[in-house]
Design a protein that fits this description.
Length: about 550
Amino acid sequence: MEQQSRKELDKEFQEFYLSSSIPSMKVGLSVTLLLFVAYAIMNQSLFGNLPEQRYFLRFGLIVPSLLISLVVLFLKPLRKQLSLIFIIINLFSCAAIFYVGVTSDITSRGYNYFYAWVMLIMIGMHTFYRIRFWDLIILNALQLLAYILASFINRSYTLPNLFFNHLFFVVSVTSLGFFISYIFQNLNWKNFLHQKALTDNYHKLIIEIKDRKEAEEELVRSERQYHEALDSFPDWVVVVDRDLKIIMVNSTLKHTAREAGFASDLSNLNVNDSFPFISDKEIEDIRSVFNTGRISIGEMDLEFNGQRVFLETRKIPMVRNNRVEQVMVVTRDRSKEKEVEALKLRNAETKEIMLKEIHHRVKNNLAIVISLLGMQGRKNPDPDFQRVIRDIELRIRSMALIHEHLYRSENLDKIPLSNYILSLASIISGTFSGHNIRLVTRLEDILANIETALPLGLITNELLTNSFKYAFPFNEKGVITLTLEKYDIKGFKLVISDNGVGFPPGFDLQNQDSLGMFIIKLLVEQLDGNINITSEGGVSASIIIPNI
């Protein structure tokens, strides 16, 4: 609760002081009024018309103040103005003191009643009226001033002994009233603070009780929702504590346990005793989750209800106060999924066998085409015809070689380019038998799919064939270098170069319309690559394929 200002606290205290003093003020004022009336009647009957009796009856001027005070105390609508009304009433008492004092004869036998009456009014104001302390002091000072003024006007000061004796008692009673008021207000101030603290604590307690009740209700709702959520799971769910005692199981597991003949009430039972089919490894995994706080995933293959089932288990830590207090074990029957996976695997194996068979048949068919071309070439001894047949055979062999590698490969998606190009280079080198050319290869291990490998094989065939055919005329010695290396992150670079005679003078590569160059350009564009051919100390063709 926010701190109140001193002014607000004083105002609240005055309201508390007045309201809590109303019963005592009623009793005090009522008793005073009754005593005054009783004494007046008794004195009238005993002493008749004596001077003392006449002075006593003059004290009746205070009766209206007592009556008005009592009436105000019994009227609830006026209670908000009690302080103001009591100040006005006590101001009237000042006027009454002055009037009685001025009209009193100091030589009369009843004059002593005057200062006694003043003392009663002063002490009565401090005793009965619970108004602000400083208001009481001011009213007390005004009453004392009224008494002194009246004493001067009635010339009681001419009797110094009488005057100072009376004044001493009046001042003494005034001081006594001051201490009475101070003690009353101080005690009530402590009582007020104590009661306010109790009230504040009570309100805090009410709020705390309300918050706790709401928290408990929320906890009950959360637990109910938690149990309902777990019960809705088709999987088996069991929660165990650090002693491996079962804290909770969901409805699915209870139903399964009943059908399997296990105990229907599994609470507080050890998980080993409740489910004897659980392996020791699973138990160790649960203990490990308590120690590490990490999720653990396991598998079980067992006989259950006369059927072979495959189960997947997840051990999930439940942390409280930075410590794993419980572990939730979620067990899922993956038998049907395993059957589907096994079926998919069998289908994939069958598909792979069929694809290999297809590649094998394509390779055989291409081999038949090569044989037919060879038979046709042997029937026609024309050198140009023979050259054309040989070029076609090499192109077909480069394609057949792809299917040969796919047939023999364990991975039908990717082809190792280094092996493929090396095999292709060996076939081309063997085709041009009797030459003095040395083939040097530097090939990195790069995998590519058939869409990349087949065009690259045809390009390699055209460039390498040209080097063997034209780079070293008259059976000269030479070197052909074949390089395959990675380029950037996804691409690669193929370089085929020789140290032969190079291009003849006036040779323009861009204006060449031979079938070989047309095939090379077309295939490079198909691969989104670029080619650069130079002729300095031989011919060098550099091909960059940016994305395999």
